[in-house]
Protein 1
Amino acid sequence: MTARPWLLCLATAWLAGCQYLPEQLQSPSAPSPIQSSSSGSVFCHAELPDFDNVPCLLDDWVAFGLASQRGDRVWREATLTRLGGERSERRLARAVLLAWGDEQQWDRAAALYKADLHGAPAELQPLLRYWLNELEGRRRLAGQLAESRSGHEAAVEEREALAEELEAMAEKLEQLTEIEQSINLRQQNE
């Protein structure tokens, strides 16, 4: 009788697959290791991404992209100063960082992406290209919004100008009506 529940649990675990088992049995504050068949256990999620740690390449860059998206202005500025240098990986990391900054930084980010995308490892290029396309989409939408706002402002200004012109014409019409009434009164008195 006691073997039956154990067999049922083992069969369920076997049928469910390994995705429900924890990847590691470490404390949550420690960095998560990623198993690589060639290098064993490698620690990923470097604070600043680079091209050197090939097994963690995508994980490091995705983690940095998420941190850039979630970070505030102070964190971005501090990280931007740490990302000095003209190496391709540093310039691309700056592009990721600037892409989540102000709209004024988006042009610089797009230029960095376009200039250094070809220098990234082949495994990383699709992710960087996706981020560049997403940035270009945001830039295009921001441009359309600015264009729409300027069009709206122009329409409001035109409407105000037309309202002033209408008011001036109504005043002139009223003056002409008074003049006409004055002329008609004189003609009746004669």
Protein 2
Amino acid sequence: MNRHFRPAIAALLLISAGGAYAKNNPMVGGAAMYPTKTIVENASQSKDHTTLVAAVKAAGLVDTLSGPGPFTVFAPTNAAFAKLPAGTVDTLLKPENKAQLTAVLTYHVVPGRITAKDIATKAKASGGTATYTTVQGEPLMFRKAGSGWAIMDGKGDTGRITIADVAQSNGMVHVIDTVMMP
């Protein structure tokens, strides 16, 4: 009889371990983020990323960001998009501006799975600033700011990583409070 319960116990342990791992992943936008789901699947559940998800859809990047990656996405919140000049988001979402929208979005994506620890290690080895080349082709820079990290675009505009290390099945997400512009 003991043999019959072993598979059931093993299954319960696996389910429990998966749930525990999901609990270690930060909540984003009031939703649990699951390391077994893709960047797009998780972002679609966040109330704080509806503008980003709409933009990813308008740019035709859903399949790419649902693919195997790995990708690291610095994901601006709805509040970050709201800080842009009036009308900017509506203009970017127009079909005739798809190339510009794609450039802005891919400026927030770096190839590979980059953690906050990776950023810290690279910054320490590089005089305090970690630089990563985005999929768009231009660099994003990171510097220590208090207990977290500041993100800077090539123009010198800065924001902050507000939630770091949100594991995804196809990469990593770091929530940011500012839209970076190439």
